[in-house]
């Protein structure tokens, strides 16, 4: 008999206490933090949905694997285990371990991207964009039109707009495009998947113009599951078979193991290009560590290798995607505007839709994120004009395409009652939406300002 409720496919052997700060304590914390949720102490948060990166719970097999981690500086057997796991999954012979995904991005772009270059993607994640721009290049988003409309119901809203990709290549020239990237799933666009048909189309364009295709593959397993559910011809394929087909279309990949590696730290850079990999390894040695550990302990290498096996389990993926959809359905049923259909790792609230009275210059998504914490101690993250706003020469700012609040659900961490609580907080805030006001930035850094900016309420 099929499940009436898709239950967590695991038992809980260890628990961690959750702090329950009062409303007065939360208000004081907001003021001390400059209304930036990144500045809160973790113990001031009740349900932490800031990110799903490195915040999940590892399995008993991962913890057991850590106990046999080989901490040798060079040639650790744990390195060989991870290398073989990555090679089996991606068929890419060159694998460079890093301490997390943005380190892989920094190393790749430092060696492959030059000032004046243009790097297209469906939607660049903010660390990816920052690392490209740090090289003096331009990061361009070419997601399909449905991917820029939160209310549009499309099965693969992360797809690349192929016509725009071809037009860009023709306009700027092949010499200025060092690579084409595709993010799976499309995090900054609502956690939306990319179809295999679209990936094949992107690869055909890359082959026509002799350009390498790289995947930002942080959530490859979730993307594979959406393909199984939604793309004709793949219902009978396993997630591993689908994942291997995705990787077969790419020349390389950056990967944060803190997402679909089910680990608390780590990442890697993988590719077919031996010469480029050699240059990247030289930079790795300079900044991260020897190529067989890359800034990671041997126990971390073991945890990632085991996680890459577990993340493609069908029961895990069924539970994972359903638990996110459960929260999205509760918000949608109450009339709260969200990105549809639900993404894989997070629910994205449409702050522009919920707070139309707050202009984008006053950061409605930041205002909504603050209210979720103020109301119920739920910490999410702004994905709007604080994160993606661009300064204009006249001192004003070009706003982001969307004003979203991402509620990223850590893997294997919270139960259904926790998610029910989050839904209640969302509804409570939505019921007083007309009373919420915007913010101004009081202090900010030149790069990745949303991490450290301080705000003042208007």
Please give the domain count. Answer: 2
Rg from Cα: 21 Å
In round numbers, the mean pLDDT is: 94
- Helix share, percent: 25-40%
Q: Specify the overall morphology.
A: globular
Largest sheet: 5 strands, mixed
Number of helical stretches of at least 4 residues:
16
Topology:
Elements lengths: L22 H10 L14 E2 L11 H8 L9 H14 L3 E5 L2 H12 L5 E4 L4 H9 L3 E4 L20 H11 L7 E4 L12 H14 L3 E4 L3 H11 L8 H10 L3 E5 L10 E5 L2 H14 L10 H13 L3 H20 L12 E5 H4 L9 H13 L1 E2 L1 E3 L1 H4 L1 E2 L5 E2 L5 E5 L7 H15 L8 E5 L10 E4 L1
Parallel strand pairs: 1-10, 3-4, 5-6, 6-7
Antiparallel strand pairs: 2-8, 7-8, 9-14, 11-14, 12-13, 15-16
Helix pairs in contact: 1-14, 2-11, 3-11, 4-5, 4-10, 6-7, 8-9, 12-16, 14-16
Report on this structure:
The protein is of the alpha/beta class and 458 residues long. It folds into 2 domains: 23-52 and 314-457, Alpha-Beta Complex (Aspartate Aminotransferase, domain 1); 60-310, Type I PLP-dependent aspartate aminotransferase-like (Major domain) (Aspartate Aminotransferase, domain 2, 3-Layer(aba) Sandwich). Helices cover 40% and strands 13% of the residues. Helix 5 links the parallel strand 3 (118-121) and strand 4.
Summarize the structure.
The chain is an alpha/beta fold and 458 residues long. The protein contains 16 helices and 16 strands.
Q: Any key phrases for this structure?
A:
16 helices, three-stranded antiparallel β-sheet, 458 residues, 16 strands, single chain, 2 domains, Aspartate Aminotransferase, domain 2
